[in-house]
Structures are given as structure tokens and as C-alpha cells.
Amino acid sequence: ALELEGLYRNASTHAAGIVIGDRPLTELVPLYQDPRSTIPASQFNMKWVEPAGLVKFDFLGLKTLTVLDRARAYLERRGAAKDWNTLPLDDARTYELMASGQTVGVFQLESQGMRDTLRKMRCGSIEEITALISLYRPGPMEMIDTYIDRKFGRAEVDYLHPSLKEVLTETYGVIIYQEQVMKIAQILAGYSLGEADLLRRAMGKKKKEEMDFQRARFIAGAMEKTVPEVQSGSIFDLVAKFAGYGFNKSHAAAYALISFQTGWLKANQPVEFFAASMSLDLSNTDKLAVFYQDARRFEVPVLSPDINRSSADFDVAWDDDKGAVLYALGAIRNVGLEAMKHVIEVRETGGRFADIFDFLERVDPRSVNKRALEGLAKAGAFDSIHPNRRQLLEQADVLMAYCQSVAAERASSQVNLFGGDQAHVGRPRLKTVEPWVGPERLDHELSAVGFYLSGHPLDEMTSALRRKRVTFVAEAIPLAESGHEAFQMAGVVRRKQERASARTGEKFAFVTFSDPTGEFECLFPPEQLRKCREVLEPGASVMVRVRAKSS
Length: 551
Description:
Elements: E1 17-20, E2 31-33, E3 40-42, H1 46-49, E4 55-58, H2 63-77, H3 92-99, H4 112-121, H5 126-135, H6 144-151, H7 165-168, H8 178-189, H9 193-205, H10 208-224, H11 229-243, H12 249-268, H13 270-279, H14 285-297, E5 302-303, E6 315-319, E7 322-326, H15 337-350, H16 356-362, H17 370-379, H18 389-394, H19 396-411, H20 438-449, H21 462-467, H22 473-481, E8 486-500, E9 507-515, E10 518-524, H23 526-532, E11 541-547
Parallel strand pairs: 5-7
Antiparallel strand pairs: 1-4, 2-3, 6-7, 8-9, 8-11, 9-10
Helix pairs in contact: 2-12, 2-13, 3-12, 5-12, 8-9, 10-11, 12-13, 13-14, 16-19, 17-20
């Protein structure tokens, strides 16, 4: 066992690391074949591949680029295509969107903390977006308030030394980028560009011997430029502190450009933005619910799935100047994306479905099984050809048996006496049942879609709730941001998570409620939970008195 200590346990490959050489890699490094990949891998780790003569690149896949590409395709269909690389970088709508913090789905800017920072920083240029992306990381995050206060004149800008004003003006005296570290060394201490790059690397690695050497070199170079030793030593220590988490500006700028492009898309073409964004989260119902509520805030309609209109993926529909998002058939639970692609192919080949039997006679039951049929029915996808959802769900076995018998006849090429297809023979007679109404209909829809789409259980109570001075979540958010704390709210319980306090062992709970304008979460401390536990069950309609703060 002692002989095994310190040896490598296993080999693995970097998630995004690609090496490139000027000749066959076998002449430069030992390779091995990863059984999980078709691409050979270097046996050297990333520390040694560069000294061996290879260039290492990190290629990261961004789904945001796919969102932009898909949105461009939507725009092309209505003659409004855009070249993302030629957008005007002074677009007022985009910066207004960012300043309001309405950046759900915007690359790098959608976390709650980032949205709060955007409201405070009020970015007005691509340079400020670049700075924000660089600052909003562990380490430099502590300088965000300093940056904002200096930007708005609430604090004096300190450039460390008069000769550094040009380098630090853009960032209000805050050292943010690795390029600034290198430039400071060149201007203040006479470093060459190559020496400055070595300084940047040394500061990143924080090796004491190398840092001691660089500090002495920096002070000596600064003294030659008549900068006192005490001042240059202080500046070096400050630069070293920032350099430890300094960001590469070109990297940050590339990210900022994508942030601006997605922000521009959301601010100027929200229909295409939401359709493209929801397509990339097709199987994530929690994220789809967030986008749905955000689309409502932007007054973008999201239409219920329709077997004769929707695609397997999210799509857009325009009627004159009014656009809407068509809900994806493939986003319905338990139906399967490939099965819905089959349905769309059948529809495009043979035309719209006339009724439920026409649908069953044309689709392949190996693709559209009973679970898929039930999911489509509960989601309301058949409403345009068979509005009684309950009838379809309760007699799904009969319908699928018919679908399978038609498929079997089709496979055996049996024809009737008149030479026509036998698909219409023996259509089952469905039992008459009362359709679902109100909450029952919505509950089934909720189980299929993951959130309330065509309506909300509290819709019929809106007037009564208003009389009781209930505040809906869409109204509560701006009120909380402006300083209001106490609200009377109402909602349907979606989820309840009970946890035990590490200190006392008492149970408390996080409860998620849904109202007609969105979702909100409440913390129930132990005392309140004991009083309310029985009514805080999923599906229950509850009125709550809350104290809220904008987070």
C-alpha cells in the first residue's frame, strides 16, 4: 500500500482543453486513447503541455450562442433578420433593460445578485458591462460598491499615481483587468511587455520567492522613474492583491458582447427572445415557468400547445404586428421530443388533423404511446379538435387500442371492398362525460406542463381578493424595491420544504406559492409552521401576511 501512495489514481481529460501543435502530436507528447472518446488525449497534464511545445486552448460551448442563432432564424422568417455583430452598442432600450434588472435569460446577467447590482450600477456602455462581469466574482466583488460610488461621484477616484490616470480612468481607479496590471508595471517600473507578462503570471501563482524577486524589481524600476520606495512598494502590494483575481479584459469583453446581444434581443425583439430561450430549456419545467412569468411581464403571450399549430419545439407566431410564443409539444411532460417530431412530420405530410380519430389513424403508436396521448390531452393540445380533455384521458386505453389496430391494418396493407383504407372502420364510440372545468382542468394541465398556462385557480377570485387588499407578486416586487415591507398576499401552494434548525432542531419551512402573476416563496418559522402546517399542502389556496425585502 505504501508503494501506491502518491501515484496517480486515474486519468481524466479537461472538459474543454484542446492542444494544438505545429507537427504530429506523437512527436511532442505521449498520447493515450480515452475509451470514452474518439479523440486521443495527452498524457501530460496542463502544467506540462506548454513547455512541451503545444498551445492549449479552452473551447467552451455556450447555449446562448444557440439562442441567438435560433432567434435570428425566427427573425428571418418575417424579414427582420439581424447581424448580431453590427448591433448599435449605444442602444438605449438595452441599457434601460439592464438598469431595471430585468435580465432573466440574458447571458452572465441573470442571477438575482447580478440583477441587483445592475440596478445599482446602471451600466451605460459596453465597457461598463465588461467591468461588471469582471468584478462580479469571488475576490473582486468586494470592490463593486467602490466602483459604483466612484462612478456616481459619491467617492473620490484614486489613481494611485498621476502617471497611472490613463490606465485606470476607465475603471474609476479600480484595478480590474490583468492588462491593467501589466500596463502599470510598464509605466511605473519600466517593465518590458514580456517582463510585465511574467509579473502577471507570478502574481497569479503567488509563489513567495518569485513575488519577492518581482517586488524588488518593481521598486528598483520605479525608483529610476523617481517614484519613492515607500509609494512604489505600497502600489506593488495593492496591485498584487488585485492581480490575484484580475480578469483577462479580452475574455470579459467577449462575454460582455454576448451579454449585450442577448440584452438587445430581449429589449427589442422579446417574442423571438423568449421562444429561443425556452427552446434551450425544453425539458426544464422550472426554468420554463420562470420564462413564462417573465414573458407575461413583457406582455408577450405564450399560447397553449395546439396539435395543429405548435411545433415539437418552441416557435413564434405573428398576426399582423402582434407576436406570440407557441408552446412546444415536446415540452409537455411524458410525451418525448422525438415522438412530437414524428407528429409534426405526419401533420406536414398529410395536413392538419381533422379530429382525434384522424390523429390516431395517422400517427405511429410506437412513437405516440398512451402516456404521450394522456400528456397531450391534459395539456390541452387536442382542444382545437376535441375540447373534452377528460373524455380523452379517461378513455385513453380505448383510443390507443384503436390507434394500434389501425397501425396493424396499415402494416398488413389490408384494404376494404371499395379499395380504400380501412382506417375509418370501427371507430370506437366514446362514453359521454362532463368536461373538466375550473380548478380540476387546471390541475391536470399543471401536471402536464409544470405550471399554470391557460389560466390560474385564483382567476375567478381576483375581484374578491382585490377587495381584501391582496397584493399579487408582480406588484409586490416593485413595491418591495421601493421600501414597502408588509403585504397581504394570496396563492396556491406549489411546494413545501420542511427543514430542521441546526441550533434548536425545530422545524421551519420554505413554501412556494403561485398567484395569477407569478410565484413567490415564504419562510415559515417554527411557531407559524406549527399553526399553519395542515393548510400548507400542495394545491391549497391560502392567504398570507408577509414581510418582504427586495433581495
